Amino acid sequence: MIQVLEPATAGVMAEVPRAGVEEADAAVEAARSAFPAWRALAPSERSAVLRGLADALDSHVEELAVLEARNAGKPIGDARGEMGMVVETFRYYAGAPERLAGKTIPVAGGVDMTFREPLGVVALITPWNFPLTIASWKVAPALAAGNTVVLKPAELTPLTSIELERIALEAGLPEGVLNVVAGPGSVCGQRLVEHPDVAKVAFTGSTEVGRGIAAAAAGTIKRVTLELGGKSANVVFADADLEAAAEAAPSAVFGNAGQDCCARSRILVERPVLDAFMERLEAAVGRIVVGDPLDESTSMGPLISAGHRDKVAGYVPDDAPVAFRGRAPDGPGFWFAPTVLCPVGNDDRPAREEIFGPVACVIPFDGEEEGVRLANDTIYGLSGSVWTRDGARALRVARAIDTGVVSINSNTSVRVATPFGGFKQSGLGRELGPDALEHYTELKNVYYATG
Ligand code: TAP
Q1: Which residues contact 22 (CB under 8 A, 6 or more apart)?
Q2: What is the Cα–Cα distance from 145 to 116, expressed in whole angstroms?
Q3: How far from chain centre, in Å, is Cα 194?
Q4: 181 in ligand 1 pocket by Cβ < 6 Å?
Q5: Is residue 356 within 6 Å of ligand 1 at its C-beta?
Q6: Is 82 strand, coil or helix?
Q7: What is the DSSP string of 157-196?
Q8: Chain-centroid distance, C-alpha 170
Q9: pLDDT for 219-260, tens place per residue?
Q10: What is the pLDDT of residues 281-328, one digit of tens each?
Q11: Contact, 201 vs 193, CB < 8 A?
């Protein structure tokens, strides 16, 4: 059995059966058997089933939010917002089956047309930081495109994914179309990646595991999409609205206790406004309430595990340049106070590695050229922000930063209708928006001779 912990108390909140190779194989077999009928369903019928699932999830938002808040240690307000996005994601892709259109291409002697065909069984491997949200980004487009699914949530946070399977069955999703297996990545996940009947793996997690998945998938030439780590830059120019930039910076790096691949954990500040920015940032960090995820006034919860807290603490040794810290409860629970390091050099370890915790590095810079160079001086390229009142500069810098998502005068990265994914070692492919569907289909070309 897997003992599922509640990070705020370190207590066991549930036990679930631990899936291994056998269970992974059985789930793939169930998905393989269900594929022909699911694929053959008329697009309008597949749409109707997915709309029904979205409605069913909508009616369970509060209980799913409480489950996610407790199991992932996130503030209940955030968890509600995430569950709202889950519903929205299923609604958005419920419209997709009837819009998976091909093209007709003018050629000699006949008619040439393209079709978007489903891949078959797809394995979806998800992390613990946004468990059901990230699952929905994969499950909804995969099902809409006519695939059947095996979903493997992280062992630390399997509960809402297990609930998703239950709710989906109740809502009328045919048996075998969505199968959830909760088991260790190195056993259950690895088997899915190597399984000859799995056509594609969509993974979100660490760059290191992503690399291994890409290599293992090569054995059977599986399609692979990867959403991996980040070390995003939040570039604040001297002409920015400093109040707004400083007010937004904490949620961009301390949101979800910093356990966010989009975290703008490198705050690049143009030197002339460094002191003014730091003063405002300190005030904003002082307003963060770290505490019980189920308390409505909480804005930051605990870290996911004791091991992860130790890893994060390793980035803040005694001689670290701590500018200021927020407050956090004492144990039990895996607490870590929001921490701002300044000044940090872009080559320093906390600025190079994904800490995945509430530790911000403030890096001073001089001028636009240096700002862009530092923003790009990383192996990652997932998100980023530019704060300036100069519209031309905003667009110039947004285009120059090698990253999948850039926000101007904002720190948001994710919207259901727009593409999300990384440049460089932050990943392969895109999730969300219309582009995600391409990654769950093969393009078929049919030529019909008319001569
Ligand atoms: P990972 O180890 O990458 O885990 C992500 C998912 O992959 C989990 O479901 C995991 O299963 C599974 N997995 C692990 N090894 C696998 C394998 N060999 N084959 C197939 N699946 C496998 O991330 P983590 O350990 O949770 O966190 C480590 C670090 O990853 C974090 O500190 C952070 O830097 C980064 N991270 C990034 C993200 C995003 S959104 N980019 C999310 C989470 C973590 P189990 O966990 O059940 O073993």
Answers
A1: none
A2: 8
A3: 23
A4: no
A5: yes
A6: helix
A7: S-HHHHHHHHHHHHTTPPTTSEEE----IIIIIHHHHH-T
A8: 27
A9: 999 999 999 999 999 999 999 999 999 999 999 999 999 999
A10: 999 999 999 999 999 999 999 999 999 999 999 999 999 999 999 999
A11: yes
Whole-structure pTM value? 0.97
Query: Cα–Cα distance between 407 and 262 in angstroms, integer?
Result: 11
Element (H, E) at 67: helix 61-72
90 exposure class (CB count in 10 Å sphere: 0-12, 13-18, 19+): buried
For the chain, give percent helix, strand, coil, nearest 5.
45, 20, 35
Which among 330, 281, 288, 336 has a CA at the least distance from the CA of 314?
336
- Name the residue type at position 154: A
For a mutational test of ligand 1's pocket, the pick from 150, 206, 353, i.e. the residue with the most ligand atoms closer than 8 A to its C-beta, is: 206
Q: Which residue has the tokens 């259950």?
A: 188
Distance CA(151)–CA(132), nearest Å, equals: 11
Tell the residue nearest (CA) to atom 48 of ligand 1. Answer: 185
- In degrees to the nearest 10, what's the CA dihedral of 265, 266, 268, 273? 50
Residue with tokens 């500018």: 323
Domains plus CATH for the chain?
Answer: 2-228+424-449 (3.40.605.10), 233-408 (3.40.309.10)
Does ligand 1 have an atom closer than 6 angstroms to the CB of 127? yes
